Amino acid sequence: MPKPAQLQKAQLVEMAPDLTNTADGAEPVNVQFNPETLRVTYANQVATSENKNAQTGTVALQHVGQGSTKLAVQLWFDINHPAIGDAKPNDVRDLTSQVTYFITPKGDNKTPKTYLIPAVRFHWGAFSFVGVMESLEESLEVFSSDGRPTRASVTFGLTQQSIIAFEPASKSRLPATGGPSGRKPAGTAPMTPAPAGSSVQSLADRAGPDGTRWQDIASANGVENPRFLAPGELLNLNAHL
Asked: Per the domain annotation, does 183 fall within a domain?
């Protein structure tokens, strides 16, 4: 049986204003759950031609700017996930604040005072994107009995003022949602939400006669405690194939 590859976690890293070097003292922020999809959008700035002598019926378009490239990502956070360890927060916003930091303007000591949005690199396996966080939406999903949010999704958009087509390195591929190299890329594998009180073994048994491979499923999905799954936690039950 091949040994499952170690699950790579996506990271957010603060960059210097030149967008090429890591900011002084910046520590990478590992996401709690890898995203299912990455959406890259390319846009050019165009304007209609002002040539009034044109006899054709087609309006000419002119490129008037460098264009832009945008990356959209959705991340999930859950304080009940066992991977958090002993330092369990009471509010999921203690976790999401590591992401909202990148959309918060930072002031300097100059006069007049100016504010800059931190540049950030989103890095995951063979995929890397550097830009500025243009938008962020935080959705608080599950609340405790005393009104504290325990689960949240954060959707953010990064933008860079240039067209930067992604070119993977030779023989490299985008990382899978989990498991050994060669499995389906992120966003193509069906994910199964875990019911309350379920375990990896119980879900594997329901998935079919191959339930004895629950250890491989747990390892491929990066589950540290197969006996306990947070309600709604997403697993790829075919990750061992």
From this structure: no
Rg (the chain; Cα; Å):
22
Look-up of token digits 């890293």? 13
The number of distinct structural domains making up the chain is: 2
Strand partners, 149: 143
Beta bridge partners of 38: 73
Take residue 170 and report the two structure tokens written for it: 């030779």
Q: By three-state DSSP, how is residue 93 classified?
A: helix
pLDDT at 211 over 60: no
**DSSP-based three-state secondary structure for 83:** helix
177 is a domain residue: no
How many Å separate Cα 108 from the centre of its chain? 29
Q: For residues 128 and 172, what is the distance between their CA atoms, to the nearest angstrom?
A: 13
Supply the range of the domain harboring residue 161. 10-50+60-168
168-190 CB burial, b ≥16 within 10 A, e <16: eeeeeeebbbbbbeebeebeebe
Q: If you write DSSP's letter for every residue of 192-226 in order, what string do you get?
A: EEPPTT--HHHHHHHH-TTGGGHHHHHHHTT-S-T
**Within a domain: 32:** yes
Are 132 and 103 within 8 A, CB to CB? no
Q: Would you say 180 and 171 are in contact if contact means Cβ atoms under 8 Å apart?
A: no
Residue 159 or 224, more confident: 159
Q: Which residues of 18-54 are buried (b: 16+ CB within 10 A; e: fewer)?
A: eeeeeeeebeebebbbbbbebeeeeeeeeeeeeeeee
Given a cut of 90, whether residue 50 has pLDDT beyond it is no
pTM equals 0.59
